[in-house]
Amino acid sequence: MKVGYLCTFTPKELIHSAGFLPYRVFATDRPINLASAYIQSYSCSQARGSLECALQDDFHAFVFTRCCDTLMRLTDIFEFAGKRVCNIEFPTKIGNVEYYVQELRDFIEVLREWGGEVNFERLMESLKLYRKLEEKLKQLFALSPDYETAIKVQQIEVRDAIKLVDEKIRTAKKEKEKPKVLITGSVCPYPKVYEIFREAGFSVKDDLCTGSRFFEYSYPDFEPVDLDSALKFIAEKYMNKSPCPTKHYEKDKRFEYVLKLAEDCDAVVFLLVKFCDPHFFDYPQLRARLEGMGKKVALIELEFPVVSFEQIRTRVEALREVI
Amino acid sequence: MKRLRISEKMRELMTGYYMAGMQAECNAWITSGAPVELLHALDVYPVYPENHGALIGATKLGGYYCEFAEKNGFSRDLCSYARCDIGCVFAGTSPIGGLPKPTFLFACNNICNTVVKWYEVLSRIFKVPLFVLDMPFIRKELKDCHLRYVEEQLYDFISFAERVTDRKLDDAKLRDVVLKSMESVELYSECLRTAANKPSPMTCFDAFVNMAPIVCLRGTDHAVSFYKEMKQELDERVKEGVSAIEREEIRLLWDNIPVWYRLKWFGEFFEKRNACLVADTYTNAWSGFKVSRGEDVLSGMAEVYTVSYLNIGMEMTAEIINKLIDLYDVDGVVMHSNRSCKPYSFGQYEIQKKLSVPSVIIEADMVDERVFSEAQVVTRLEAFLEML
């Protein structure tokens, strides 16, 4: 049974250990029709596209984390549309593990109501499986970033996902030295967009939650011994994941993270979804810092479903030419 | 429309407030839903960029100042309070000469997560410390862990502010400020409630114009005496049966932040059609900031500020609106779908279905007059009023 989620801060290990399939919901190629009756046109197309998907496909339930103002309201909107939902209050301000552990305890109760049972052994198994998947994805991306795979693994059973990534690692070839571009943004579930960058002569690195932000974690250095400590492990794992603009960090950790990623890149592209407030607030100041480092920077604004890939191509080729 | 005498006083009071800001030794820029009592207790002057945005909107210069932010890369799709405020920083001025440079920043996300991003931008511009008071979103129930989380942060904030300002928070003073805050909130609520009379002595436009003191001066004597006087004037009107508009035939409720640059236009539009917007959800939101008289001030504060109007689930929101519909006995609701305020606007389509009276949605923006489409708004509202 599929349990849909939208944000990479969702503790998918818990959903999985309860016997459900954690399924990341993205906008698809379907035009947005039904969702327009539920939410205004100035919401981002990832929200509207996901709602469209939820209204048309079969899901057991949906899990939300409060990451932006749109997601905060989307939980209720999904519920009004007749869906089973739960919102986990992942803190906006990163730091208080104890508080979040309690939220996770409550989430276990919700999973139980949905017909899923979580116990320590099964949770440990899920934690191990996802860590294995994340490490393998890191390995694959070190050879050659494969966005089609990174997106696909978020919608299939984790054991199958590991097998798929293993296969891809076997056949992947180390990319040749080419000018490198860092693509930063929220989601872009259309693998063709990344191909455009490659076809224009770039090698690609990313800071996206359909890319590296799905698998970049620094894991806590303790071994859980019971359910409670496993929850603590999850809380710390997610608080220490690759930083996201929807969260508030000490010492501007998010900016520092992107600047570090950009060090070995020739260009940076902000691939932003229209109406995505957290990214658009960061954009001007982050851009200035990147330009200060001598990087060529471009902004490409997207709306899903992407209708004109050729427009993106023109922008990317123009960027490639100035390098 | 019969203007309230008190509006003149409000102008004087707020001019004094802004002037005092220029001289304050130490100030903090603060979001409208944050517990300002802590700043007053520390003698830190609170600066409200949102109020400043509303003021600029009302002077119809929103688009002008937003452009300063847009030229610096800030998207036109971002909140217009934020764009306007950041724009004024880049412009180095505003209709009131700009806001004083902050000593520190205090953002509380019980109204939106946008303020966190907005204040991060400010913190980088001014190179001053930012404290984020993180409120969990209360979609269904307020849990103990939420309260503990918020309360701990209130203590953190006090240490933070004491460190930055090199001052010590005095418990007795905090209690005194909280008492004044409670009193002003109570008086303010009483003012709003006079609109339950028929005919109503005030419109929501009076409420919008006179809300600045409850936002900016809550916890001071100024707010208490201001709303005492406003209450007196409204009571007089009620006693004499004075109606805020010429002829009140239809009573309406407004939802969302006002369209600041069109206050007068809306007022006249409705009055011409004998419709009185007697109340609104925006100003009523401040009537919720009643810190309890309990022993522990901070835990009381944690509770009221966590369950603020924009930080609760839509089921509760619809319930509150239905209560306002009953209290003010309105015939319909005008919902402003505000491009600049996603948490206030998303969900309106669903809330509409849960209301006990008919409603209409109009699209606009609170400060950015460039997106206002008069013909569309008129068509919608006329059809709605005819239907009522």
Describe the structure.
The complex is a heterodimer of chains A (323) and B (388). With 323 residues, chain A is α/β, with parallel strands linked by helices. Chain A has helices at residues 12-17, 45-56, 69-80, 97-113, 120-143, 147-152, 158-171, 191-199, 227-239, 253-262, 277-292, 309-321, and strands spanning 2-5, 21-24, 61-65, 85-88, 180-185, 203-207, 267-273, 296-302. Chain A has a 4-stranded parallel sheet with strand order 2-1-3-4, with helices on both faces. Chain A has a 4-stranded parallel sheet with strand order 6-5-7-8, with helices on both faces. In chain A, helix 4 (97-113) crosses helix 9 (227-239). Chain A is globular, with a radius of gyration of 19 Å. The termini of chain A are far apart. The mean pLDDT of chain A is 97. The longest helix of chain B is centred in the middle third of the chain and has 23 residues, at 171-193. Chain B is α/β, with parallel strands linked by helices and 388 residues long. Chain B is globular and about 60 Å long. Chain B has 2 domains: 6-170, Rossmann fold (3-Layer(aba) Sandwich), CATH 3.40.50.11890; 172-387, 3-Layer(aba) Sandwich (Rossmann fold), CATH 3.40.50.11900. Chain B has helices at 6-23, 37-41, 49-58, 62-71, 80-91, 114-126, 144-165, 171-193, 204-209, 212-216, 221-240, 263-272, 281-285, 297-306, 314-328, 342-345, 348-354, 374-387; strands at 27-30, 45-47, 104-108, 130-133, 250-255, 275-280, 332-338, 359-364. The interface between A and B is large, with 44 and 45 residues.
Give a brief description.
The complex is a heterodimer of chains A (323) and B (388). Chain A has 323 residues and is an alpha/beta fold.
